Prior knowledge:
This protein is of the alpha/beta class. The protein contains seven helices and seven strands, in the order ββαβαβαβαββααα.
Amino acid sequence: MAALFSGKVLVANREQxxxxxxxxxxxxxxxxxxxxxxxSGQCPRCRRFAPLLKDFFLRLTDEFYVERxxxxxxxxxxxxxxxxQRSAFLRSMPARWLAVPFGDAFGRELELRFSVSExxxxxxxKPNGEVIVGNAVEEIRSMGPACFRNWQExxxxxxxxxxxxxxxxxxxxxxITDPIRRLKYKLDKKMEAKNKExxxxxxxxx
Length: 206
């Protein structure tokens, strides 16, 4: 996914921190379903849809609703007329959202690449950048968070719970066997020392 944003800059909502290096982008986007939200805080249709999208995102990522955040990231591609309008809109949205910087030509590139002709539009992408849904606005309206499971399956994400369990299992196996290995090492060292002492005693007698 980071390849789509290679050499580009994304901005973290609220803090206005830039996410620009390949490493940072990989960390932010790796193994996640990506939503590109094309919209405007002034567009009447967007104003009606934005609260639904906000609720959709929070119910999948906020710890108030879920024990573990879903593997989902959203990037806002603004069609706002001014940076102040864009900032005002983002202040009302989840802090975890990312955004293309205001006025960046990359926003227009994304519109052309994914054939976005009207807003609101939500393009759903796999981690490799392939399109899952060209515009998921109606799907989000009708199904709500339930549609994420379909996207997750289509994206063939590696389940983070599986990865965590696998790591935990490795640590568990290591914690069980490590003391045994350490004890064996100590015993081997003691035997080696005793053998050396006996050898030295034998040489002294000679």
